[in-house]
Amino acid sequence: MVLKNATILVIDDDVDVLTALRLLLKPLVKDVVTEKNPSNITSQIESKAFDIIILDMNFSGLVNTGNEGIFWLNKIRKQKPETSVILMTAYADIDLAIRGLKEGASDFLVKPWKNEKIINTITSILESKKSNSSKKASLNSSSIEIIGESDVMKDVFVKLKKVAPTDANVLVLGENGTGKDLIARALHDNSNRRDKPFVKVDVGALTASLFESELFGYKKGAFTDAREDREGRFEAANGGTLFLDEIGNITLGQQVRLLTALQNRQVTPLGSNQAIDIDIRLVCATNVDPKTLADESKFRKDLIYRINTVDIIVPPLRDRGTDITELSKHFVSVYAEKYNKNGFSFDPGFISKLKKHDFPGNVRELQYVLERAVIMTDGNTLKPEDLVFSSIERSTNSSSQSTTMNLDDIEKNAILTVLEKNKGNVSKSAKELGITRAALYRRLDKYEL
Question: What angle do the packed helices 437-446 and 426-433 form, to 10 degrees?
């Protein structure tokens, strides 16, 4: 029976509803987690893989139109599109529930519910997911769904296909925005653990006080706010893959605690003396320079050896050549559909301008630039003037990387910055640069801008 392996999250601000559903489902499923505060949804679904989320459509203290339910549904769908959502609503709000179905919910339940109806609805969704999963399994094991045809990406794919089926721990290296999380997910989806949980943790964002409780869990009463037992991320990932992002940012003290857990393959929740055996495949990622990781004053060598059986270096977008064109087609197609716009074609100058940009923010920056272009353009042909590159990425990059001292590069970057600031107005830009319009045009021609 598919129910016995299911993990379900119930979100409702009515404690009686949470209690009733927990009592109903707990004997039938693997785990039931209840949550009273919808603001905790993001952390809940990041810390644990749920098969189904049962979501109330109204929460006290807000305007009871059901819109908050739709809001949280969209949040869940964006963060965990593979998770099925069942909406709960009063009979009078069925129209809103139907709207929820159009927004991506799997089904809806009307309060007061019938227990048999809830169980049948959950079972039906789980059986449908299991059927779809078996159809996709063969595809996932033979192909990696990451866009890229450049030689540097082909090298990444070769290593991925060799490493994914093994249980080897992998360290994914690369600049911000290169897609390290996609590589981690591909490793899981193409492994023998693909049907088990994939749990991601941004360990670099965990404070010293949260590090152990988040990773190893805690027992009720272990500290002031520990009102009930909570399993840690290691336990949540048991049998599957644990992805520790920004591993290069953890302290030496945190490194010791992590190393101990990996060596013993056990974790001990806070407030407990009972160790729990864990079986995980570990994938870590960082944007930290490998030279920094080799510095023992900043990172323990014994931990590096433990997490780095194999490393995969994700290349920056500026080194990926023709991939920019393929990625652009993909993102423009995605955003055209998202914003209900017709298909777009590319003016030759559009792709040319993209290829000349160094993309300090990598694929993530490309994605945001193209989303902005799709939103702002009025026609069906994307032109160079539809591209506006973020000065935030440029300033961030200039502060974190060595600045070029080549005069042509300095002049080119200055012209680009001023043109973007003035939204392409040549007269204003020339005045700000202290040169004539004719002189600016000559430089635009010189740098093929």
Answer: 100
Distance of alpha carbon 24 from alpha carbon 109, whole angstroms: 15
Q: Provide the CATH topology of domain 318-446.
A: Helicase, Ruva Protein; domain 3 (1.10.8)
CB 265 within 8 A of CB 277: yes
Report the CATH fold assignment for 2-140. Rossmann fold (3.40.50)
60-69 long-range contacts (CB < 8 A, ≥24 apart) are 60/13, 65/96, 66/93, 66/96, 66/97, 66/99, 66/100, 68/38, 69/96, 69/100
Which residues, in sequence order, are bridge partners of residue 89?
110
Q: What is the pLDDT of residues 106-124, one digit of tens each?
A: 888 888 888 888 888 898 8
For 255, phi and psi rounded to 5 degrees? -60, -40
Cα distance between residue 205 and residue 211, in whole Å: 9
- Strand, helix or coil for residue 340: coil
What are the tokens at 204? Answer: 């670099």
What is the CB neighbour count within 10 angstroms for residue 153? 20
CA neighbours within 13 Å on the CB side: how many for 325?
A: 11
Burial label, 347 (beta-carbon count in 10 A; 0-12, 13-18, 19+): middle
Residue with tokens 């078996």: 134
Q: What is the pTM of this model?
A: 0.58
The 10 Å Cβ neighbour count of residue 121 is: 18
Overall average pLDDT of the 153-175 stretch:
93
- Angle at which helices 407-421 and 391-400 pack, to 10 degrees? 150
In CATH terms, 147-313 corresponds, of 3.30.830.10, 3.40.50.1980, 3.40.50.2300, 3.40.50.300, to: 3.40.50.300
Read off the pLDDT of residues 189-201 as tens digits, 9 standing for 90 and up.
999 999 999 999 9
